[in-house]
Amino acid sequence: SQMSFSRDGKKWATVTSVAKNDLSSAQVTLGNFPNFGDIGKVVVNWAQRQGPVLSPNGEVLALLGYEILNGPVYLYLYKGDQIEQVTEGRPMFWIDDSQLIFVKGEKVFIYNIDAKTTVEL
User: Fold this and answer.
1) In whole angstroms, what separates CA 13 from the centre of its chain?
2) Strands of 49-54's sheet in order across
3) Whether 65 contacts 53, CB under 8 Å
4) Strands (E), the chain
5) In angstroms, what CA-CA distances link 15 with 7, 28, 65, 121?
6) Collapsing DSSP states into helix, strand and coil, what is residue 17?
7) What order do you get walking across the sheet with 90-94 strand by strand?
8) 15-69 tens-digit pLDDT
9) 0.85 exceeded by pTM
10) Can you tell me the distance from the alpha carbon of 68 to that of 71, in angstroms, rounded to the nearest whole number?
């Protein structure tokens, strides 16, 4: 999915094309639903950032991404200003507003965004 909502449904995030029929770039957006990108938006290369998973409170967006086509998958965080690469892995879902479950291969981890720590499950 290229869309995700906060638990209360008041905020949402999307990854969409910048312009109709343009596959050269995409944009990551955060917004107060139904507004589109009013909190933040950033243009990225097409398909390099995907699969938005919005935190329960709608403040932090986790994304998967690639730097090299068919290369490693990375976990990125976006808070409305810039996208930060965190670690190798694929975001799955949020436990709460500061803890995110992600996978790398067959292993499962929790990333704490406040402490910037990773724990394998």
Assistant:
1) 8
2) 49-54, 61-66, 73-78, 83-88
3) no
4) 3-5, 11-17, 25-32, 40-45, 49-54, 61-66, 73-78, 83-88, 90-94, 99-104, 107-112, 117-120
5) 19, 5, 12, 29
6) strand
7) 90-94, 99-104, 107-112, 117-120
8) 998 877 777 888 999 999 999 899 999 988 888 899 999 999 999 999 999 888 7
9) yes
10) 5
